[in-house]
Amino acid sequence: MHYLDHAATTAVLPEAAQIACRVMTEQFGNPSSVHKMGIAASGIVEKARKQVAAILNAEPSEITFTSCGTEATATAIYGACRRKGRGKHIITTMIEHSATLNTVKQLEQEGFEVTYLEPDADGHISTADLRAAVRPDTALLTCMLVNNEIGTVLPVKEFGKILKKKAPNALFHIDAVQGLARLPIKPKLWNADFISVSGHKIGAPKGIGALYIRKGVRIAPLMLGGGQERGMRPGTEATPNIAAFGEACRICMEQMDDNAAKVEALCTQLKEGIAQRFPWAVYNGKHDIPHVINVSFPGCKSEVLLRVLEMHAVYVSSGSACAKGKASHVLAAMRLEHTRIDSALRISFAPSNTSDDVEALLDALEEGTKRLKRE
Ligand code: PLP
Q: What average pLDDT score do residues 151-175 get?
């Protein structure tokens, strides 16, 4: 099997799976229980909170566990926009994940005005456009750190500066789901008030995420209940997933430099192979990080090409996994021609990939593109 779809999800790291299994079968107390098993479970959650805080360069008290990146994002966006006395204007980009886009669309229906910043043909969002968009009544800027379809990095440091200078009361949310463990996360330098992350993109199980909430920022929770996570996210804590997420963060942090070098080498190998064997292929976006490469094979519909690759046990994607095969809103926002959007593949690496995976992909692509071009 050659799995090259890590922007969709990753395998759970063995160490993270082991911890989750132990917490499920042995240390399964409820962190709210006051007996020994409850206290032990609470200790497991707090240890994981420290590990997540460490990779986010944050204080443990600034971390709230959620069920996923989508929930973290919704908590931040609704929380920021429903504050008393805030303005009625939101800024986001046209290339956000649906977790953000659908949440701001909902707020638009509730009376908020939303400015959607447009990417250029390379998938970059300009700081000049942001500067022009910020207004005194801007309540929130919400944007991603790394785009999940094309791997572009947004200039969040400059965005934070511009926002806070022009609208000091506005809050800044960053969706760092695809940036976690790939890039250093710097909440203070970026002037971030909220940062969303998700476990299943870095070797933790599905069903765990976290929201960084800057110390001093007060927002209402999405739900009310038993007061867990300091009232920000009620519901009995998913202790196995939380423990596994903490462990995955610890491992990724320790291996960040080595992992970056491994992925860079795989990306170079892929690009050299594409240049040699498919000189007619076209890259979409500038993939500022080597983990996510988006490339079109004009004349070969990606949905069909995916099936041919699958027959060779090579797994890539035609875009965001959440888009379920719909035409990419990211590539459309970049105003690419239909034939390019229609034939785009997203290849996304993890450090566990090998050069054999890249060779298998190139071989399968050769067969697939030859066959589809003949048809
Ligand atoms: N944001 C981005 C950029 C993503 O890529 C994803 C998942 O693909 C999400 C948010 C949602 O994360 P989750 O699947 O944990 O809800």
A: 97
